[in-house]
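lol so apparently i was supposed to do this last week
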Amino acid sequence: MRKPVVLITGAGGEIGHGLVTRLAGSGPPIITLDVTPLDRSLAPLVAREFIGSITDISLLDRVLAEFEVERVFHLAALLSARAEFTPVTAHHVNVEGTLNLLEFAQRQGESHGRPVLFIYPSSIAAYGLPDLETKMRAGAVTEDQYAHPTTMYGCNKLYCEQLGHYYAKHYKQLSADAIARVDFRSVRFPGLISAITVPSGGTSDYAPEMIHAAAKGERYDCFVRPDTTIPYMTMPDGVDALLALADAARDRLTQSAYNLTAFNPSAAEIRDVVVGAFSSAAIGYRVDPKRQGIVDSWPAAVDDSAARRDWGFAPKCDFERAFREYLIPTIRQRYHR
Ligand code: AKB
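anyway here it is w/ 2-amino-3-ketobutyric acid bound
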């Protein structure tokens, strides 16, 4: 008998770290798939760790043979900045890897006779605003506006949202005996800020990097202009959102990708709060025009009313609370230790 489990890909990454910690001990056992072993704090929380790539179909076949996967949280991806250095590899991992996982979920669903829940974090990178003036004028953008990404990662995320929709609604539509067995749901995450982990490879990383550097007493040069503005959210609110979407009643969902946001400070506003909290913080600006170009193409704000209406998305932390109650005390404690 195969065991019912939850599969988390990319479990060793930032979102995975938060998700494994939250899910451990409640509900079905967790199995993970990542290219590197989980760190020592996570490994004991999971029932089985598969080490390898989502591009390895034989590895996915092994998982299929051994476990009855009821839910997939497909987090593995190469992020926006890293993907620009190796776009073909990014496409391979982000798109073909996701296709492999969707096919895996379909086959799992066929074998246990009910849909497999597939939760997919997309991103504000799925947007591409043509210039700064449009960005300033656009206000809070809805899911179907300005969906013209400028990065490989953004193209990958937007396409995979559509691929997921295909597997959920139109899979093999001309074949008489095919039944879609994937219940695909996705969120477009803003930049995420964790007090526990430090990101790598993203373009929204200037906010968390600034905070962690200040807490460690290290100098930090922010790679975007002070006026740069994109939406953000704390990691615990991000993990809560994934779980709320997973638990939402299927018939309440009116779309397959939902915007999420909690606050949207400028880089200068983040710097001010960080300098106020860590008196020795030394934060300057050294603008990298290429990464600046990427964040300038992302919206300053997104409209998350569909997520609030359909499945009750309600982040706990606004900008003030995120720093006062979560980031500053947790980060202080982390580096103090
Ligand atoms: C990145 O910067 O690539 C990610 C994202 C916004 O999806 N953090």
